[in-house]
Amino acid sequence: MQSFLNASSITRRCRRENLLALTQYYLRLSSLPQNQHVLNDDLENQVLVEGKASSRMAILNRPSVLNAINTSMGARLNKLYKSWEDDPNIGFVTMKGSGRAFCAGGDVVAIYHMMNQGNLEDCKDFFRTAYSFMYLVGTYLKPHVAILNGITMGGGAGVSMPGTLRVATGKTVFATPETLIGFHPDAGASFYLSHLPGHLGEYLALTGEKLNGAEMIACGLATHYTLSERLPLVEEQLGKLVTDDPSVIEACLENYCDLVYPEQTSVLHRIGIVDKCFSLDSVEEIIDSLESEVARTNDAWCAATLRRLKEASPLSLKVSLKSIRDGRYETFDQCLVREYRMTLQGLSKQVSGDFCEGVRARMVDRDLAPKWNPSSLEQVSKDMVDQYFSPLSESEPDLELPTKLREAFS
């Protein structure tokens, strides 16, 4: 994890490739109910395994839905990783995705259908399984290499960011777009986003904006960068290594890395204005500050950021801002436990049904016209926000992580 916190000093070179609009990624996700997913996918083949000299590679293999993670995938990953950790013949583990994505996140369309069918226990099981695997990656006793060649969003970041090494390419597209579907950045996002330079984490969490591979290197989300055309060679060389030493693996990756700098249009060249606006105490103040900048300078970036914020769920914006701020002072396991509480509050619909409405509007009916409730920031009370962070009921246990056996990082 230390490499993640220090990686903002690393820069590499890339070709900028055209980034598709976030909504296009959403529309690729399946709208089938969970039981149909199971019927259509061979469970074993959803996570493929390749054996190497001294390593194993897990391949997320649901390319038709951008490798979106479901419960069975999370369970299989947990089982595989635990067995590999116990195997003295395996030195390190690599993860990648099939097709044009690393992983677009959790299969929220399946969760949407489960919620509408009243299967809340199945929804909880998914999040427990996924978050537990993310904790396993973050406390893994062997080096972990994630090859982020393609879309890496939400839960896709959750299964890769806690690991030792993260390789970005010219095809990498990172985002935490949960506020746009009435949710909150989860899967450990409140931990790793809160540790980014300045207040970039608040910006990414609230707007859901994308970063490319060059930007991921510059801000520390990725540790290495290579051209996607070189990945077969990179994977071949990694497969030949017989080691459990992360420095040896890193040296191998360094042989195929390229120097890259964010383009002048990148948000990373606007850290001053990001910090000025997104360091403020409330979402209302952030928006007021951006509006003042637009009135004063007619800045196109500020105007686009404002439009993005106004597309998101008002409740999600306030909940997400508090989550990132809390995450700065919590360990990784504390962030996951809190995010699990927040997730169950969202699933319960006791405060709002924005999560279901957001998924419906963007990924099921695809009308891109969610009817948020509350519909404005003014209508979102402090009590509503605080409810998301409240302890669960006595009959609803918190997420249990093996913190006594596997120490979390801070």
From TrEMBL:
Belongs to the enoyl-CoA hydratase/isomerase family. This is 3-hydroxyisobutyryl-CoA hydrolase. InterPro entries: ClpP/crotonase-like_dom_sf, ECH_dom, HIBYL-CoA-H. It holds the Pfam family ECH_2. Its EC number is 3.1.2.4. It catalyses: 3-hydroxy-2-methylpropanoyl-CoA + H2O = 3-hydroxy-2-methylpropanoate + CoA + H(+). Keywords: Hydrolase. Pathway: Amino-acid degradation; L-valine degradation. The keyword Hydrolase applies. It comes from Xanthoceras sorbifolium. CDD domains: crotonase-like. Residues 56-389 form the Enoyl-CoA hydratase/isomerase domain. Hydrolyzes 3-hydroxyisobutyryl-CoA (HIBYL-CoA), a saline catabolite. Has high activity toward isobutyryl-CoA. Could be an isobutyryl-CoA dehydrogenase that functions in valine catabolism.
